[in-house]
Design brief:
Order of helices and strands: HHHH
Largest sheet: none
Structural class: mainly alpha
Organism: Arenivirga flava
Protein name: DEAD/DEAH-box helicase domain-containing protein
Distance between the termini: 45 Å
Helix content: 40-55%
GO molecular function: ATP binding; nucleic acid binding
Radius of gyration: 14 Å
Length: about 90
């Protein structure tokens, strides 16, 4: 399996640094017919470098793909979960 056909979590497991995570994510998304727009690539680079990102772009410009990259960055850093969880109220 290569980066274009591997599951997203598999890319995180094989990545050693921010550049490898970025390259793996770019290859993964392009291999699925979703090449990154410049704003997406800039945001993903910031995320895998450990920076916080606020992405304000029009509907349909790939914010969800950037969110997937945030999960990948968290997995690459060894996080078990990368989103807040809501507590259930009785």
């Amino acid at each position: 399996m290569n980066a274009t056909t591997a599951p997203l979590a598999g890319i995180a497991a094989g990545a050693g640094d921010a550049e490898a995570v970025l390259d793996g994510f770019i290859a993964w998304s392009a291999g699925r017919g979703m090449p990154l727009y410049p704003a997406q690539e800039e945001a993903v680079l910031a995320l895998v470098s450990g920076e916080h990102v606020v992405l304000s772009t029009p509907t349909g410009t790939g914010k969800s793909l950037v969110a997937a990259a945030a999960h990948l960055a968290a997995l690459a850093e060894g996080a078990a979960a990368s989103t807040p969880r809501r507590s259930r109220r009785s």
